[in-house]
Amino acid sequence: MQPVAVLLLAIAIAPALAGGTSTIINETCAKLPNYYLPRSYCTSVLSNDATAVAAPDVRALAVAATNITARKAASTLSAISYLIDDLSDCRRYYREMVESLAGVLEDYRAGRFHHAAKAMVDKVSVVPLMGCDIQLFQGLAGKNPFSQENADNDEMARLASDIANLVAGNI
């Protein structure tokens, strides 16, 4: 190959190798209406995909954009599937917590304050909520859509546990 031809070829493919924005990406993104997404989103997301950067025309860019969307949708579907599994475990933790709270209330009615306080500490105030948080954060989805609810329940369970211990004479 001639040195000039090699140089021209290198210049032509350099943007694709560098992950830069191609002309076709810039032109296409400039033509799109900005109703929902800014132009910067269009150029950024497409410029980070090698297939989109290498697209020779708008049709190939449309295919690349559709493939990016398909990968993102598949990733979200996978996260949802993992969350469903993790949430099933959380449902079990909370079901056990509700059952334990029913037992605590029975202990209160029967005057077994020490037993109620112990049950609050052992079965209600930490274990179910921590189990759910751990399951969701360490699960394959790596997300916890109930962070605030778990924190609220944890605070209330700790407060109720402290009051139960006060009534039982443990504080």
Automatic annotation (TrEMBL):
Which keywords appear in this protein's UniProt record, sorted alphabetically?
Disulfide bond, Signal
Q: Which residues form the signal peptide?
A: 1-18
Recorded hits in Pfam families, A to Z, give: PMEI (PF04043)
A GO molecular-function term, please?
enzyme inhibitor activity
SUPFAM superfamilies referenced in this protein's UniProt entry, alphabetically: Plant invertase/pectin methylesterase inhibitor
Tell me which residues make up the Pectinesterase inhibitor domain.
Answer: 24-114
Keyword Signal on entry: yes
Please tell me whether the keyword Cell inner membrane is annotated for this protein: no
Q: Which InterPro entries match?
A: Invertase/methylesterase_inhib, Pectinesterase_inhib_dom
Family to which this protein belongs: Belongs to the PMEI family.
Name the PANTHER family on file.
Answer: OS01G0111000 PROTEIN (PTHR35357:SF8), OS02G0537100 PROTEIN (PTHR35357)
What is the name of the protein in this document? Pectinesterase inhibitor domain-containing protein
